[in-house]
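Subject: Sanity check before I submit

Could someone independently write out the structure tokens for this chain? I want to compare against mine line by line before I put it in a report. The sequence has 347 residues.
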Amino acid sequence: AVKMITGDHEAIARQIACKLGLGGNILSADDVFGPTAGDDIAGRIDSASGVARVFPEHKFRIVRALQADGGHIVGMTGDGVNDAPALKQADVGIAVSGATDAARAAADLVLTAPGLSVITAAIEEARRIFERMTSYATYRIAETIRVLVFMTLSILIFDFYPVTAVMIVLLAILNDFPIMMIAFDNADAAPQPVRWNMYRVLTVATTLGLLGVAETFLLFWFIDVVLELPRETTQTLIFLKLLVAGHLTIYVTRNPRWFWSKPFPAARLFLTSEATQIAGTLIAVYGMVVAPVGWPYALAVWAYCLAWLPVESAVARLVRHAIDLRAPRHVRHLGRVEGAARSSRAR
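---
Independent answer below. Compare away.
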């Protein structure tokens, strides 16, 4: 929530706050810090649109009260020497354009352009970056589980090496290109503040990884038992499956909704992903450093991977939904822990 903290009179503050859409509930410093105000400073500030007729020491006390009693992450803007203590105390102190050297030194961020819209733009971009980082972490964990668990179980249970050393190198090289493009992907800016939820990341990634292991074993069983293809051909088909399915998983991890929902993948991510899949397909079809399999088998693997794509997306959505149902209790507990930590730090 945005609060106006100003040294102007209540009438002026109320007029400006209403124009900005903050509301007209403006308190004076005496209402918050006066002898009859009570101890619930954070509660009164939370319920108000802003505080008028404040002195520099009031700004510091407001920031400290919100951190200690309200469990808030507080950002503060200022430009003068008197704002320096509050800027220093805030979790994010922001010195606006034209601020004094003292305010700049105390702040965490220094704005070089006039106005505050740059703060909104920075927050939105930071949240998009966070979404890309979450997508990257989920994908890498899922792929690591998918490949390593499948290979380990294949060797231990079936005494069979599903991919050769050359194929592992090819997988690593071809996977790196779309992974790099995740940094340029389109992502939504979350409407609320975001934080790392490693339980969510690990649960979704592990589920997708184990589902990928099951998919690959099912294909391996069909190739080895039903079709009875040579082991070299089996290895190439498994290589192609790991490559194609792995790249398709990017579309599942990048979007918490269905993989076909907006925001659509950035052109660089989509084109790079498809180009590396096509390159891997050509390697498998024509036998470049691997046993050739021909187009019919290669297209069958593509169809198999595409058939599993909506299944993976549905499973990921179900897991995220199940985790989100538990979120309120987790968030309340996290808020209590952070509030206690801030109170201890303030003392």
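---
OP: Matches mine. For the report I'm noting this point. Strands lie at 4-5, 26-28, 50-52, 75-78, 92-95, 109-110.
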